[in-house]
Amino acid sequence: MELSVDGGFRQWWLLLIRGILFILVGIYMIASPATSVVALGFLFGLMILLAGISELLHVSNSRSSGNRNWHLGLGILEVILGIVFMSHIATSVAILRILVGLWFIFRGIALFNLSRILGASWVNKLGGIVTVIFGLLILFDVVFGSMTIILFVAIGFIITGFFNVWLGYSLKPRT
């Protein structure tokens, strides 16, 4: 499948504005990490709430009774969790930090085990160990964990912003 966009893309400036906004938000997150942690905690709760609403809509629109109870239970749980996380930001931030920390721990263990199974170099094993340690730091050091998440998201926003700006300029009609 090939995607083509003609050179006269009229909304090129929207990409430019979106890119600039991504860059500015990324810079703001780095400059004001405490506010950013609160915002991420709220957004984490909002995403879970929206996922729950989506599950409930799936149940109401589904004609099959196959996994209906599972989706209904999951939807109700996610709506409740979303409301709790949005109203208790500290809990949301802690859960987010725990999830990210556990993810790094599991990825590190997987990397270490894969390098052991494949007989890979000591560098791969070291990478697995360092990744596990990084995950443990995120999990057990609240400040390190929160700042790591903020920094990763901020860097992601800045990179996304630069690519949106580049795309906007590349789609700008040539006069």
Automatic annotation (TrEMBL):
Transmembrane helix among keywords: yes
Keywords on record: Membrane, Transmembrane, Transmembrane helix
TM stretches of this protein: 12-31, 37-57, 69-89, 95-114, 126-143, 149-169
A GO-annotated cellular component: plasma membrane
Protein's UniProt keywords contain Endoplasmic reticulum: no
PANTHER family in the cross-refs: PROTEIN HDED
Name the UniProt record assigns to this protein: Uncharacterized membrane protein HdeD, DUF308 family
